[in-house]
Amino acid sequence: MGLIECKEITKTFGAKVALDHVSLDVPEGKIFGLLGPNGAGKTTTIRIINRITIPNSGTVLFQGRPITDDDVQKIGYMPEERGLYRKMQVGEQCMFLARLKGMSTNDARLALRDWFKRFGIESWWYKKVEELSKGMAQKVQFITTVVHRPRLMILDEPFSGFDPVNAELVRKEILRLKDEGATIILSTHNMESVEELCENIALIDKSRVVITGRTDEIRRKYGQNHLELVYTVHISGDAPDQVLSPVEGVFGIVSDTDNGGRHTAVLSVSKPKNEVLAAILSQGLDINSFRELMPRMNDIFIKLVTEGV
């Protein structure tokens, strides 16, 4: 049982079907990637989980029971459309939002001071939000989302507007929060972040769930049974080069690139990895590394959305 379960959620806006019998299971204590092209239904799903909008049919469960407004207090939500009050001072803004989530004034101030220090923004407390750049405002928005230590954090494009240094800082904080027990739904178009952070994903396209499951299992499913072999060829005197040869019924060679005696070969395999490795070792090669090649999430995303397979 996941922390959040969506069961057969359907939502329409007039004649438009935003969600069509969508079911999701978000495991507790994990980072769950909610993926899909623009207009697929991700934001509607998130708003239904937060009880901002109500589905036409279906149920959202929180810890195995129908979600309530009290449960929403245990959720931290950072929407893609940022929502800070531009004329307020940063510290005042953060205190206000922390108090709305049930924190006492003292607890909120202590927690915010800690977060400001983590992000190196102690001097921003009395700045107005309108003085901040997009990336600076994004840091403040992230802090206000997580400061009350919610059980569930929903982060919609959390790396938007960040330079690589600050994006890495936020990634580390997301991982730290997960290690401390938080469940995180990450909605993003950044497939590198999905591979790095998300243990489970769901891909929504045209209002329906196209695929859901563990990230590594999905990548393996859409692989092409390719392995990468790196080996070294030692040439002594006039002895012929000892290079990899295909073995019929076990593996073929898609490519074999020689870089000064260090070869990188891509193999198309038809037998289990241990049998392939045994066949390679029988050729007496000096092996440096041997690994399964899995497709990138970006390639799988494009394949599923454009080809529907």
Task: Please identify the top-level CATH class of the largest domain.
Answer: Alpha Beta
Q: Care to count the β-strands?
A: 14
Q: Reading side by side through the largest sheet, how are the strands ordered?
A: 6-7-8-3-9-10
Order of helices and strands: EEEHEEHEHHHEHEHEEHEEEHEH
Supply Rg. Answer: 25 Å
CATH superfamily of the largest domain: P-loop containing nucleotide triphosphate hydrolases
**CA(first)-CA(last) distance:** 28 Å
Shape: globular
Instruction: Name the CATH architecture of the largest domain.
Output: 3-Layer(aba) Sandwich
**Uncertain regions spanning at least 5 consecutive residues:** none
Walk me through the structure.
The chain is of the alpha/beta class and 309 residues long. The chain has 2 domains: 4-220, 3-Layer(aba) Sandwich (Rossmann fold); 224-293, 2-Layer Sandwich (Alpha-Beta Plaits), CATH 3.30.70. 32% of the residues lie in helices and 30% in strands. It has helices at 42-49, 69-72, 90-100, 105-118, 134-146, 164-179, 191-197, 215-221, 273-281, 297-307; strands spanning 4-13, 16-26, 31-35, 57-62, 65-66, 75-78, 152-156, 183-187, 200-205, 208-214, 226-232, 251-259, 262-269, 286-293. A 6-stranded mixed β-sheet has the order 6-7-8-3-9-10, with helices on both faces. Strand 1 and strand 2 form a beta hairpin. The protein is globular, with a radius of gyration of 25 Å. The two termini are 28 Å apart.
